[in-house]
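Hey, resending since the last one bounced:
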Amino acid sequence: MPPSSPSSARDSGPDAPAKTGTPAEPASPGSPAERELRRQLEALQESERALREREERWKFAIEGSDLGVWDWNMVTDEVYFSPRWATMLGFEPSSLTSRLEEWSGRVHPHDLAETMARVREHIEGRTALYVSEH
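The structure tokens again:
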């Protein structure tokens, strides 16, 4: 009989801790659990396909309109600036960061208070669209 290693002696016996993290048995083919997992996987794949299609339509609409666009994620505070937005302002798209200051720092100081008031109105839901020319 081989000598017990410290871990094997510790991991056996009535006082040994219960093992956790053991993978569950796979669902048997055709079981309700497997059918449900397949249904959820198919739904997820369909959602991903639909999202890719919407993103492509949005991309083509923006590029075809020749408009400069920026999109602010207020959760992460990151901003997407379209390449056209950058070139309209005379910049190379790769020279911009994804920070809001790339936009707000370019608003004329005399226009900034009014512009930010319009942003707040839109965020608060008091306007359907944010529109500001400055």
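DSSP finds five helices and two strands in the chain.

Sorry for the duplicate.
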